[in-house]
Specification:
By secondary structure, the protein is of the alpha/beta class. The chain has three domains: 83 residues, Arc Repressor Mutant, subunit A (Orthogonal Bundle), CATH 1.10.10; 104 residues, D-Maltodextrin-Binding Protein, domain 2 (3-Layer(aba) Sandwich); 103 residues, D-Maltodextrin-Binding Protein, domain 2, CATH 3.40.190.10. It contains eleven helices and twelve strands. α1 packs across α4 and α2 packs across α3. It is elongated. It starts with 8 loop residues before the first helix and ends with a helix.
Length: 306
């Protein structure tokens, strides 16, 4: 295929389709009509002699050739964007841009209300998309430019990433108001005897804390009674309010959940681990003016909330 015969705008459609797996979302993202996206796909298929994307129950799935083309096309477009956009200033009040953030559902509850209120006041044209994936896949997506920023506890990222500490965090126990055995304070015996709910989000490293809890139970010679294991915090406040379960959550999540139900938080009866909540980004975005603005805004809003 002769490169001079290929409209580079088609590659923008290709790149968006790789990320969204949807002609509808691609059309919205690129401000095109859906018929224009379909026409672009038709031209791409003709140029490469391959379907590139095929319909599946999970969306428009890339073919082997599309997956092979993805890294060089994405990298090339990234270089072009860097060359074109680098000299331009980022003016928040006038900016029209979408940022993709990787964070857990806890992170959404803690970060998003304050961040979105600030964007509405300072940068109304800036949009946020949160991404649900695994830490390993998030690293690859950030290197490809598909995720702009991660927020949370991430200790296993490889080289090529920058990290900035936002605040120090620790865990508390959360129970319903009027719990039959936990009243003025949470004793060690009450914690050991209680039925527990365990929350393990996909993002972050909550397992570090759970390992510490299990170690404390082992030292006490007791078996922990885990009545429920959860992967999401949705409905957690209602669940704890309607039961005698004890769940351990980060302090900021505890505060947010208390506001939604009749719950109480208690200091743990043992020295649990503390950890840093940070924002991380890939080297490819380090000097991007818009990215620098978003990072500085997040730092301004959340740094020092220890």
């Amino acid at each position: 295929m002769n490169l001079r015969s290929l409209d580079l705008n088609l590659l923008l459609v290709f790149e968006s389709m790789l990320r969204t797996r949807s002609t509808t979302v691609t059309a919205e993202e690129l401000n095109l009509t859906q018929s224009a996206v379909s026409n672009a796909l038709k031209r791409l298929r003709l140029a490469f002699g391959d379907p590139l994307f095929v319909k599946t129950p999970q969306g428009m799935w890339p073919t082997d050739l599309a997956l092979a083309l993805a890294p060089p096309v994405t990298e090339g477009l990234g270089l072009i964007r860097g060359a074109v956009e680098a000299p331009q200033d980022f003016v928040p009040a006038n900016a029209q841009r979408t940022f993709r953030l990787y964070l857990s559902d806890i992170g959404q509850l803690i970060f998003m209300p304050k961040l979105m209120a600030t964007l509405a006041a300072e940068a109304p044209g800036v949009r946020i998309v949160t991404v649900d994936t695994t830490p390993r896949e998030a690293q690859n997506a950030m290197a490809m430019g598909d995720i702009d920023l991660t927020l949370g506890l991430f200790t296993r990222f490889s080289s090529g990433f920058h990290q900035q500490r936002l605040f120090r965090e620790h865990y508390v126990a959360l129970v319903r108001d009027g719990h039959p055995t936990i009243r003025e304070r949470l004793t060690g015996e009450a914690f050991l005897s209680a039925a527990h709910a365990v929350y393990r989000p996909t993002a972050g490293h909550h397992d570090v804390f759970e390992t510490a809890v299990e170690h404390w139970f082992a030292q006490a010679g007791r078996q922990r009674h885990v009545a429920l294991r959860m992967a999401h915090s949705m409905g957690l406040s209602a669940l704890i309010a309607a039961s005698d379960l004890v769940v351990c959550v980060p302090t900021r999540l505890g505060r947010a959940l208390k506001a939604a139900a009749d719950l109480r938080t208690y200091a743990l009866p043992f020295d649990g681990p503390e950890f840093d909540i940070s924002q991380l980004w890939h080297e490819r975005f380090h000097t991007d003016a818009g990215h620098r603005w978003l990072r500085s805004t997040i730092f301004r809003l959340f740094h020092g909330e220890d």
